[in-house]
Amino acid sequence: MRRIGQVIGVKLEHIEAYERMHATVWPEVLAMIHACNIRNYSIFRHGALLFAYMEYIGEDFALLGQRRGKKKMPEAGYTLITGASGFIGTALAHQLSTERQVVCLSRKKPQGDMAFVQGEFHSFEDLRHLDGFDISCVVHLASVTGGCSEEDGLAINVLGTRRLIRYAIDRGCRKFVMASSIAAVGCLSADFLPLQVPIPDDHPCLARDAYGLSKAMMEDLTRYFHGVIPDSDFISLRFAVVDDPSARPTLYSLDTMPRTPFVELGHVTLSDALRALILAVRAPTQPSVRVFNVVGMDANCSDPIPIMLRACLGPRSKQLDLSWYDSPEHAYDALYAMDKIEKGLGFSPKESTRVRIRERI
Fold it and tell me: CB neighbours of 81 closer than 8 A, spacing ≥ 6?
């Protein structure tokens, strides 16, 4: 970190105008200062002298002026990130804070100096602590996860999400990026069998578990709110299992058979998940409800998909048309379709989960 001090004079006849202009600094200016890696920027006046102090956490202060001139002005308003203390939320908050104002809502404060409110997204009392922020976009990552009880899944992931959306909409927010899950199709059940493969983004919910049901119902909530508020924009991203960089994922094979193949063979790297989220946040507001699969570019298995599914599913595999995977060039393709998100957001995964696992073994 580099500490910088600056001294400049101001004409006495302009002091009143100077103080009036600086009494309420534009949010865009504050966001630009933050995006330029400047922290604790303060200006003190002594008579006609102004003393400015700042802390620069970037790498090249000499080029700051050039970079600042080339930077796009961050959008007005704050992007609210729920669940910001998790490994996905923390990484997302750091990346987004370089281009826009971010406020984090979570139980624990994420690392960094982003604006932070401690609390739960499903608590109206906690949400009220956000009243001082002009929220223009919500990225909803927080939830109770797989294996949750029916009570928690519906009370928190559904009713709690309803409370969050209602709070934000009543305060003028119209853009929402929702972290859904491939579990919304019902794949957490060992006896799940999709209607088709690759599994499309609009595959109906066949869930027999509370978590998958709650994610599908959360997506239904977005359709309800869009019907009530037609100019709202909801993007739900059905994430596969996001690999924690600190953990070692499994490469499945005939020797290590997955119990729930449509979950365990579908992973996505953290960097790809972050790119999908950022593209969704950056996407121009488009009054609509959109649901996209977000999975890795291939399945994390060492044996081809047809062999794996026929071994995992037994006779039930005959109900699926696996012809897409029978050709060598598609033998390891993802189990979830990704054409719609490529067309809608310009996203396609760049990292192979299968190759990454092999490299770490």
Answer: 89, 92, 93, 96, 102, 103, 104, 105, 139, 141
In Å, what is the CA distance from 197 to each residue of 21, 188, 262, 323, 325?
60, 16, 10, 9, 9
Q: How far is CA 203 from CA 169, 193, 274, 292, in A?
A: 28, 11, 24, 11
- Write out the two tokens for 275: 């790119």
CB atoms within 10 A of CB 279: 17
- How much is the pTM? 0.79
**Do 326 and 317 contact (CB within 8 A), yes or no?**
no
Torsion-angle region of 266 (φ positive above 0: left; ψ -120 to 50: alpha; else: beta): beta
Residue from 208, 207, 235, 224 nearest 293 by CA: 235
Q: How far apart are CA 68 and CA 37, in angstroms?
A: 10
Instruction: State the Cα–Cα distance between residues 11 and 205, nearest whole angstrom.
Output: 68
How far is Cα 147 from Cα 145, in angstroms, rounded to an integer? 6
**pLDDT tens across 323-350, in order?**
999 999 999 999 999 999 999 999 999 9
Question: Is-contact 84 101, C-beta < 8 A?
Answer: no
pLDDT tens digits, one per residue of 216-269: 999 999 999 999 999 999 999 999 999 988 777 789 999 999 999 999 999 999
260: tokens are: 């729930």
